[in-house]
Batch of 2 targets.
Target 1
Amino acid sequence: MTPPPVLVRVGAFGAPVLLFLYGLLRRIDGLDGDHGPGVAWNVGHSLFLLGFVLFGVLIVGVRRLVAAETPRTRIVADAATVAGLVGVGCFLWVILGDLFADLDAAAPLPEPLELIGPLAFQLGLLVLVLLMVLSSGLLKWWSPVLVLAGFVMFAADLDLLSFGALLLLGGLSPLALPVVRPDTRERVNAGDLHN
């Protein structure tokens, strides 16, 4: 089992961590009862933006790790990758619009994409995680369960973003960590040293 490439590890760790930090800053920004421009808003959205760039890197990297031995698996993996990247693109569009009001006024995200984008991202990433469980052995059965639970938290309440991000981090953590291999060197028995 080869370890995931560095960019996959950075994406698997960095994207959920940045999403977690965005969730915290969103809560801080909303303490006055209003979410809007200010330091917490701007810093949080900047982290949110960078997090979704890393989600895009992660999706492309995971697609490369999926062992697509059959044409059907390749089609599913490619479709999940496209869906995930379309979703990432929609998130980036909205985040940039939140950061730059003039951009949002000039080119708002079309309404159908507001609905499709988040679902496409979540479905694409979840399918790729499932394919990783089935094909590569880098992820275990609990990874897609945790990723799905994180997405459910996001859908339930945006104030739960940080908790959902921690679930995503848990589900993606095997991709974020290097693979530890058992020591394969020959062991010398104490009795062999006396001969």
Target 2
Amino acid sequence: MKYTNGFLLRATAALLLASGFLAAQDVQPDNTKMNKGDGNKTAVTADKQKMNANDRKLTQQLRKAVMEDKGLSTYAHNVKIVSENGMVTLRGPVRSEDEKKNIESKAIGITGDSGKVDDQLSVMANK
């Protein structure tokens, strides 16, 4: 009987899964519905990020502050941060109102002005 490499890989994976060595992965966050709004011509998206030094620095500082906060969820670590002419837009889902306030507070601290932060974050219910 001749086996192909694909067959052997599938058989090995099935054996490992059945024996408990390979755990089924949790469902990953799916932001497909949220991202459909990015097709709107007026939506603030990463491709509209200005390439001037000040806007890049704002985005970089805020992304670093968000990523260093290990108390935030994966959703919060993946929010969209877009800077345009000193104005920072925050978009995407977070897990709680506290996370939303936390990220907005970081943005205000970095920009120095709450009027320069457009908080479009949304709180997603835990499943």
